[in-house]
């Protein structure tokens, strides 16, 4: 049982992973992952589709291009790219040797020149944002993440997901002054403590809090990390569905013949001819 650092008499408890975070049924675990060697080819099932995997730097990574061409084939490149950036997913470019391995495994075409690789967890998050039902992570009541940032003198606080109902919601309670801030304002809030060191903000702006705000625990449980990733994806494009195309306009009803441009021209020509005839009659009368 882990407790949240939120000050007060009511401590927030983090239940065991088995009760709070049920396994995700959209992917199937693979046996023998620990025994895989570098550049070893494997296979992961996502939404019933086999995706080629490759062990890179000790992590099993999946081919993003293959995922885009199979599971996400109904979405454009820009949609997938923007959603990946919104979710904070970083691609690792494979080496020429790894690219050749992916070609021979059938994950990439022969004409391909590069390929981005993402972890299995990142692939699940990306596919779920497009294909799954996007809901906030299920967390215990009164739960809070212990978070901190190192901008300026740094600060520490409690991120309360229950209060995070909009991008500007004041959902972070400062551990020093007990004031509430929105995530994009909290990274500009700091306290100078005796052991604090000033850090020049790395181009911190109101939209970069997801990069600067981190869990205080350096070795958190995987379930806690996954829940934190899901919370950060909220209100950032990570859960937006593609809008349906607008309905085609109804065909215009056929206009009556009298309103047709040619009909109006004919009417004006008749009126003009009658005016000329009357003018000629008046002129001939004056001459006589």
UniProtKB/TrEMBL annotation:
Principal location: nucleus
Organism of provenance: Corvus moneduloides (New Caledonian crow)
Annotated Gene Ontology cellular component terms: cytoplasm; nucleus; transcription regulator complex
Family membership: Belongs to the SKI family.
Protein name: Uncharacterized protein
SUPFAM superfamilies (alphabetical): Putative DNA-binding domain, SAND domain-like
Subcellular location: Nucleus
Statement: the UniProt record of this protein carries the keyword tRNA processing: no
SMART domains recorded: c-SKI_SMAD_bind
Disordered: region residues: 1-33
UniProt-listed GO biological process terms: negative regulation of BMP signaling pathway; negative regulation of transcription by RNA polymerase II
Signal peptide limits: none
Pfam families with a match to the protein in the record: c-SKI_SMAD_bind, Ski_Sno_DHD
Gene Ontology MF terms in the entry: DNA-binding transcription factor activity, RNA polymerase II-specific; RNA polymerase II cis-regulatory region sequence-specific DNA binding; SMAD binding
Keywords for this protein: Nucleus, Repressor, Transcription, Transcription regulation
Record carries keyword Transcription: yes
